[in-house]
Amino acid sequence: MSRRGMLWAGFAVVHVLVATAGFVLPNQPMGDVYLVYEPWSLQALSGESIVGVDEAWVYPQLALLPMLAAHALTWIAGYEVAWAVLVTALDAAAFAMLVGAARSRGRTTAAAFWLVFAVALGPVGMYRLDGVTVPIAVAGLLWLVRRPVIAAILLTTATWIKVWPAALLAAAVVALRRRLVVLAAAAATSAVVLGAIAVLGGASHAFGFVAGQTGRGLQIEAPVSGWFLWQVATGSADAAIVYDRDILTFQVQGPGVDAISAAMTPLLVLVAGAVVILGAVKMWRGASFAALFPPLSLALVLTLIVVNKVGSPQFLAWLIAPLVLWLVVDRRRGVGPAALAVAAAGLTQVVYPLVYGGILVAEPVSVALLTLRNVLLVVLLAWAVTRTARVRTSVAVTVAAT
């Protein structure tokens, strides 16, 4: 079998395996699909209120589109299977762009990494909105240099589904010399989306997802929650795990939680801003796009994961896009962070859904596994930032030559 055939065979096996795992693993890893996505979309289809338009919503408004689109496939075997088929179709389109004729070693390595990562992360990477945005983001990054307008439209559209691709747009604006084209296309796409929201009567809720995120507490899986989680695990009466019925997540409580929660969003903005400034300095000093963009985009995506009070397991899927591009343009330097990311993804699947029951009762071994996963993410962020800081520039080369 050819290299291309092997990759596509692997694609089929991986997607069937991951899709099936969503139904057989514990703790309902595909629960969001039928518990929230299907009801929200049926509410809109039945002529009732439209989330994000008639009422505030935790997601950007375009997140409703894939939820609605899945209904066109329910004839196969219901809404859950329809969602898996939809995500698989999007993955296949981006995978075809990536693999091509399978002549490039970097592209085949990136494709293999994507498949290994998908197995390591498990069904939560498929049965969440993030599974829709990842292939769109991969396609956008692959087109970023040669077709920046299309790339910016794709990345902006993905951002209006789930906010995280904004980190890729920010990295593109910093590292790409045609940044004004990217900015113009992103602004135009956002204007169209906002115009459509206004026409539907949802202008007052256009940015409701921002308030919805900033007002959340500390989710138990987030790195910042580790201190409180360990207090619960060691029997402290000052900390507890509670369930927030409004946003359907488990959070920690304890002395100082509210203050830390309030500080996390400003801290996230500050850290992301510092990474952007680092990238901008490197770009100003003459760093090339191929050298700068991969570690910078990875650093910004990891900032959104690590310096975040929400630590949902599907966030790990965000790492696919920047690492795929890194392996495409610089396989040698991209292999290390890709391997560490796969390890973090594997631990994430162990934490959720496999031992999630242990996390909810703060069982020490389960909490230790979650802590190790979070430590790996911090190490990976430090690696990406360090790599960005060490990107060679024309100024550095000139100084070295003299």
Total strand count, please? 2
Work out the helix count.
18
State the helicity in percent bands: 55-70%
Largest sheet: 2 strands, antiparallel
Strand content: under 5%
Number of folding domains?
1
Rg computed from alpha carbons, rounded to a whole number of angstroms:
21 Å
| Poorly predicted segments | 396-402
Structural class: mainly alpha
- H/E element string? HHHHHHHHHHHEEHHHHHHH
How far the N terminus sits from the C terminus, by CA atoms, comes to 53 Å
Task: Give a brief rundown of this model.
The chain is mostly helical.
Description:
This protein has 402 residues and is mainly α. It has one domain (3-401). The chain is 67% helix and 2% strand. The chain has a two-stranded antiparallel ribbon. Helix 4 packs parallel to helix 6, helix 13 (289-306) packs antiparallel against helix 17 (364-389) and helix 14 (320-329) runs antiparallel to helix 15 (331-354). The longest helix has 28 residues, at 257-284. The protein is globular. It starts with a helix and ends with a helix. Mean pLDDT is 93; it is low at 396-402.
Defining key terms:
two-stranded antiparallel sheet, 402 residues, single chain, mainly alpha, 2 strands, 18 helices, 67% helix
Present the secondary structure layout:
Layout lengths: L2 H22 L6 H15 L18 H6 L9 H21 L5 H17 L8 H13 L5 H12 L6 H10 L3 H21 L8 H7 L11 H8 L6 E5 L4 E5 L3 H28 L4 H18 L13 H10 L1 H24 L1 H5 L3 H26 L4 H8 L1
Antiparallel strand pairs: 1-2
Helix pairs in contact: 1-4, 1-5, 4-6, 5-14, 5-15, 6-7, 6-14, 7-9, 8-9, 8-12, 8-13, 12-13, 13-14, 13-17, 14-15, 15-17
